[in-house]
Amino acid sequence: MDKQLVLASSSPRRKELLSFLGVDFIVSVPDVDESLIIGEKAEEYVQRVASQKVLAVEGFVVLGADTCVVLEDQIYGKPVDLDNAEFMLRALSGKVHQVVSGVAVRTGDQLAVTVVRTDVEFVPLDQRLIDWYLGLGESLDKAGSYALQGAGASLVKAISGSHSNVIGLPLVETASLLIQAGVDLMSPNRNRTS
Asked: CA–CA separation, 125 vs 92, rounded Å?
């Protein structure tokens, strides 16, 4: 019998990405303060928040993740409003930034955490392009104010590293942590969720 996997996330993107691994799971939304601590580095921040998420929900095997965007040591989370989203897009325009994710898996009282970093290069953004993108409504619940899996892909010139990390869940590292936790991703007799 498979161990029940719990995804500690409200993100539809993480739910969709995890389903690509073909594993059965349930979703439990954690109640965690995702505020940045003054002086905290991006890697420390995403590790801390991902760990808090898996500790905040019940389950034998619990998976949680957190993602932020980093430009020149400045951390960009989800924008608070459209003005904040515009500020972030202007800052990222024509530059290479990093998408940093922490992935945590708790099995019983064991906790394993990893951090994944991906370089993303934006095209130069003029006001017309920024206004168009903000008008689509993709920005407000995305770290860095853009969605690679949506129209935001048209803002991205190049990616170096994990594509799924930029969307919110690095699948190679997630699969590795789940296998270490005893989740059988390759069982031919297991029911797959759709």
From this structure: 9
